[in-house]
């Protein structure tokens, strides 16, 4: 039975990869490279960061120089070190929140699509309404209620993106539910649980990596947004969004390095995920070619 | 005095799969006021030939050789701007599916008026007058001037397309499968209409179709294409009565006639060739009942037997 | 019939609205976290806690709270603010809504212009270098962090070039007389030219920031819709009539690609609002975004709830409006 899911996704995928040329996968490769680099930055932070990110190690608001490559913030902390350590926070929150969303959203989508009926219709309506609502505002509201802290931020972001997975998985389940091999499984008396796990699940997860990556992009941006707005993590923790907020107060006096570099990191990391998602999408679902 | 002279035209499509030789060395000519029927299966290259005359070959296709001379002008060398002046005004085209050939968001009156005003410097009122007249000529009442395409039936939409085609009194109309999307009764009406208009305005028509029956109604000359080659061309009655090329005979036999006694449908065995790697020699040889050795190895010469052109080894005096 | 379509659409909007309101209720009341403690602190004496709880209606059982909540909303009562003058929430919202509206509209215009031009030109040059650049643009803007982009613009244009103001909506004492609340419109209506230019100069950077952010989505949609439309027969037929290429693209093709684009634009309104919150914060723009955040900081429970409800209403109405516009613009639906 595994053969069913394999032939649907893996074999055509391999055939497709063999026929690719550079112009088609440079996007995915670039994205993946960025993700890998930032991940290494996060893992190896204690090794590669020149200074302690929380302690003041230099003068206040020193411009980029030989001691502090990216300058210091108003408390005298090294910005480069803060950025390197900041990757830990951003990446872990982004990954955790996305996994949280995916597990809950996909499971709900799977169940809802399979069970159908009023349960499905109601849940779908709820999810659609959530989906229509601006994600940031929802995240703000949830973060407000839950309070600050890493776990709460992760949960806020996680909740906001549940509808995305829900909708995607549910629509796939709905289309797969009526196919022949599911009917066959039912005919031989397979239980609902077996059908769900062994037959339906493998076949609807094809586009998960693309959505997960895109979701990670949003998660990074939302986490940075929450921190920027002051709803994220508490003070000394090195966090890109927080640093951006902190440095923001000094731009009118021309201290550009306090904001430029943390912000760049946010964008580059987010870009890594979105490029990877877009590139992966191109590979798996090629667009219309020439007529 | 020929109006249109196509000489050894080659149009290839450069796709990822390979080079599709859609039109591979076709020569023909059309005189003023003449109707040339161009017949062939889908994939024969007849539609490509049609749009080459307007310089609208879609990428990845392009003209790689040959010439098209229209009233003294070499069309293959025109820039797109220069070509735009000819399109619609001196050469116009009627497309196969009238539903998709009209802009669904534009009133049909606006279609006509826009065409006039793009080519001639006239007032809106004059453009409207002429548009209404053109609609009347094709049998559409003026009250429908402000209607949208989806409010018309298929036959009437095709009439609108014809109105657009004759609007500026072109010298040549290319009709690409004008009746294929219509039912039989409407088909006859459209062909009649084309014929009358042609006579009244002294226009030439290049009538492209896979249906030799439709073509035979009004064609003066008939040309037959197969796999990018022109395999036979002559006066209509000669083609219909005494076809020379085996493909033409097969085509004629395949048309089921009401009077025919046999119950079996005659079809041509085999399938149209792949134009990326066409068969060696004569492209028709795999399906030809008369194929000889030479047909399998060398492309036949085109010979002209008293204004009856045919591309087949059976009619070449010496196989050389 | 057009009317039937509209009625159906309105009916479909009601359950969505209902669900959104319920979700907001659930978030505000049921999720863990103690709003009363957040307001008065954990060390307050029990009488204070009790009176605040009572005032907020939080001492009632949940279903009673829910019914009160809904019935109040139906009457258009969003409650009163917890702080300062205890003004009705709806009034406070209306103080700040025009600012967000003005920003949203200008950003929308910017994004539409960018999106249409880049998307159309990309679709004309399918798979060329420019096409790749524009596609990349779409991805980059999606990953753009609005505060950073806004701050960069501020650094360049306000701090270094000193061309434009760093933030705010208008300089003090320059506000035009209030008619609509939209400064540009009001200054034109009252012929207050200095106000107009002052307001305009403040509007430029935030509009560009938000506009660029939204435009990426438009670029991609315009491009893919245009690619689909350009394949259609009537485009070739129009060219065959000698219609110049620019007219074919911008009049025939774009008009046909536009309707699904418009629908998508309407649906992106939520995205616009989300972006507006960050843009307003960055530029100290006194709109609903900054208002909401400020009230969150002050723990003004009722106002926060009321504002979020207002936003939900806004979103549902906008998508309804878009559907109506869609039906009007497509003659196939209008004249059936």
State the low-pLDDT regions of chain B, or none.
Answer: none
Could you report the average pLDDT of chain B, rounded to the nearest whole number? 86
**Overall strand count of chain B:** 12
Helix content of chain A: over 70%
Shape of chain A: elongated
**What is the N-to-C succession of helices and strands of chain B?**
EEEHEEHEHHHHEHEHEEHHHEE
| Count of alpha/pi helices of chain A | 13
Separation of termini of chain A? Answer: 37 Å
Low-pLDDT windows of residues of chain A: 1-7
Q: Give the oligomeric state.
A: heterotrimer
Q: Distance between the terminal alpha carbons of chain B, to the nearest Å?
A: 32 Å
In short:
Chain A is mostly helical and 291 residues long.
Explain what you see:
The complex is a heterotrimer of chains A (291), B (320) and C (336). By secondary structure, chain A is mainly alpha-helical. Chain A has helices spanning 2-18, 22-43, 45-48, 79-115, 117-132, 135-146, 150-160, 162-177, 180-187, 192-204, 208-228, 240-248, 257-284. The radius of gyration of chain A is 22 Å and the shape is elongated. Residues 1-7 of chain A have low confidence and may be disordered. Chain B is of the alpha/beta class. Helices cover 32% and strands 25% of the residues of chain B. In chain B, a hairpin with a 2-residue loop joins strand 9 and strand 10 (229-235). In chain B, helix 4 crosses helix 5, helix 5 crosses helix 6 and helix 6 (154-166) packs parallel to helix 7. Chain C is 76% helix and 0% strand. Chain C has 336 residues and is mainly alpha-helical. In chain C, helix 5 (89-124) crosses helix 14. The longest helix of chain C is centred in the middle third of the chain and has 38 residues, at 193-230. At the A-C interface, helix 5, helix 6, helix 11, helix 12 and helix 13 of A face helix 1, helix 6, helix 7, helix 12 and helix 13 of C.
Furnish the topology, listing elements before pairings.
The complex is a heterotrimer of chains A (291), B (320) and C (336).
Chain A: H1 2-18, H2 22-43, H3 45-48, H4 79-115, H5 117-132, H6 135-146, H7 150-160, H8 162-177, H9 180-187, H10 192-204, H11 208-228, H12 240-248, H13 257-284
Chain B: E1 2-15, E2 18-31, E3 35-39, H1 46-52, E4 61-70, E5 73-74, H2 80-86, E6 91-94, H3 98-101, H4 108-119, H5 124-137, H6 154-166, E7 172-176, H7 184-201, E8 204-209, H8 212-218, E9 221-226, E10 229-235, H9 236-241, H10 246-254, H11 293-297, E11 302-304, E12 309-311
Parallel strand pairs in B: 3-8, 3-9, 6-7, 7-8
Antiparallel strand pairs in B: 1-2, 1-4, 4-5, 9-10, 10-12, 11-12
Chain C: H1 2-30, H2 35-40, H3 46-56, H4 62-74, H5 89-124, H6 129-142, H7 146-160, H8 183-189, H9 193-230, H10 233-240, H11 245-267, H12 269-282, H13 288-297, H14 301-329, H15 331-334
